Structures are given as structure tokens and as C-alpha cells.
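Throughout this chapter, every protein is written as a compact record of paired, labelled lines. The reader may check this reading against the record printed directly beneath this paragraph:
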Amino acid sequence: MKTFTKLLCAAAVASVGTFANADVIINSGSTGTTGAATELQVNLQATSTLAGGTCTGTECSPLPTSTFTEAGTGVVTSLLPGGQFGVFNSGFNSTWFLNAVYQDLSGGYAFGFPNFNATGYVDLFYVEQSTGNTEQMARLLVGGGQVEPANVNLSGIVDYSWLMSATDTGNTAADAKTFFEHTSASNGFTKFYDIWADTTTADVAWDFDFSVATPNAPYNGDTTSATRSTDLNGQIVFNVPEPSSIAILGLGLLGLAGAARRRKS
């Protein structure tokens, strides 16, 4: 019985950390609450800087030993609908906007394709139309990324450690602690900030799949530093931790095992 109980515990713990795509609700302060969106459509204008490439004149391309850094800015252009009738956007892109900052990413090359390190982030900022005031709502830490057929994938976790030292809080109607939430509770929490702050709950994960305009365009410069600018168009999907059916089943079996032991005693 002890061995069986340990196996059930292991199965339950292993499956509690699973993730599922979730509808995301945005609470935009005085402008209201949006409907449930499944993805954020993002457009970024990024500059990639290559070091250690091979060059012919001023046109350069990477070598296996080359490295790169990337940074850029852009906007969330739309909230992609999760249902037949789309998303109630509550003033999005009219009375308020979401800007994005893509910064400090780095990586190297394998077989001619870039692979991203676990560095850098994508910051999301709320902007009020009437005042122009801007306030950060979230930071998406990059945990790594790679090129896949026809697109690039970045992934990581949502982070709020920057909020303790933020200087722009209170400038807008929106609040970073309540801005992003999802439609079902994770360990009793729906707000992304509360999930992050709870030490017993896994962090909210994210994936950013995007295409690169002119992916084969050469870098311009020299072997020390060459740059190129591209448009990154894609979708950010959030994945919230939730107990899986296996975990629930495992916990139920643990209860049955405990009841059986009590009956024997």
C-alpha cells in the first residue's frame, strides 16, 4: 500500500504542473473589460545585429560561430477572437492601445538558422488615447526560441518582479496587477499577477509564433557588427497552469487509499 500511495503522489504532483491554452480577459480600467481573446496579434519592427559573420563588401551572412542580438518596438494590433462573434474590445485601439517593446534578445546559429538564448523580454505597455500616458502591464521573459518551418517560435514565462521598482504606476486607469486574467481559476487565482505571486503555483507561460519579413535579407556592415531590420508578425498565446484530469484522478485515488487504510485500522 505504501508503494502504491507513493506512485499516486508522484503522478498527482507531476501532472499538477501542466498547462492549457486559456481565454485571456483584459481589464482596461476605466475603459471597461474586454471579452475573452485567445491570442494577441502583434507586429514588431525589430533590428537584428550580427557579430562574426562573413561579408562580401557590406553584405554579411552568419557563420556557425556567429552571434546576434535583437531589439525592437511595436504594437498589439488586434485581439483574436475565441468565439464565433469575436471579442468585445471595450475601446481597444480607439481609447487605449497596447504597445510592445522587444529587447535584449540574443542567440547563435546552428546549420545556418538562429537559435535564441534564454535572455531578453517582451514588455507590454498600456497607452491612454486622451492623455498619452503609458504604463507597463507585463513583462514576458524569453526562455529560448528556435526557427521552425516557415516561422520562429519564442517562449517563456510572464514576470512581475519589475513592478516593485516601477516608476510609472498610477499614470493610467489600468493596473498591472489586475490587467491580465483568464476565464478559469488556477489554484484559486485568475489574475496573472496573483498566479505569479503565489509560490505554490506554476508561472503563466507564453508562446510567440511569428513570421519574419524578408528572412533571407543580408545584414549590412562588416564582420564586427552588421545589422538588418525586419517586421515580425505573429501571435502571443498565454498558457495558464491548471490541474489536469490525471491529477484530479490521482488525488481522488489517494483519498480512497487513505479511506481503505482507516477501515483496516
